[in-house]
Design a protein that fits this description.
The protein is mainly α. It folds into two domains: about 60 residues; about 80 residues, no CATH class. Helix 1 packs antiparallel against helix 2 and helix 3 runs antiparallel to helix 4.
């Protein structure tokens, strides 16, 4: 029986993380007369993560041609891994600057950076998509959903 230790451990970690996230959704505020509350989407994602992690564990327990042979190692010399680390850095910076600069300022820069990271090099299109997507998201949340987005230093 060939067990790929890294995939097996990753699957177990994913299952534990999804179970904790699913359990945490029970602490969300409940609203009366609201058929779908704020816990619905996080529970849906946690359940999806649990199922995918379970599949990862099960496919690495059984001996199949797919999981036979040498395992690829993770290395920061790999261009894909470098992009992953940079992408995580962009998202972390976005989260840290969200309340300071506000949604309207930080979001286009984040979107532009992520598009650049996936080798999109049509700068005019990248700028238009970043600004228009930010504006549409802001308008949907503010006027359609009635949810205030953080405005950072522009919060009057």
């Amino acid at each position: 029986m060939v067990v790929r230790k890294a995939n097996f451990i990753s699957g177990i970690i994913g299952m534990v993380f999804s179970a904790v996230a699913f359990g945490y959704t029970f602490t969300f505020k409940q609203f009366i007369n609201v058929p779908v509350g704020p816990e619905f989407f996080p529970r849906f994602l946690a359940l999806g993560l649990f199922i995918c992690s379970l599949i990862l564990v099960l496919t690495n327990i059984t001996d199949t041609p797919h999981n036979a042979g040498p395992t690829k190692t993770l290395s920061l010399r790999d261009k894909g891994m470098q992009r992953l680390v940079i992408g995580i850095g962009i998202v972390l910076a976005y989260a840290l600057l969200w309340n300071v600069l506000g949604f309207l300022i930080i979001t286009p820069f984040c979107l532009f950076g992520l598009m650049y990271l996936v080798d999109t090099r049509e700068y005019r299109t990248m700028i238009v998509v970043s600004v228009v997507a930010t504006a549409l998201i802001f308008l949907v949340f503010k006027f359609l959903l009635g949810i205030e987005m953080p405005m950072g230093f522009m919060d009057w």
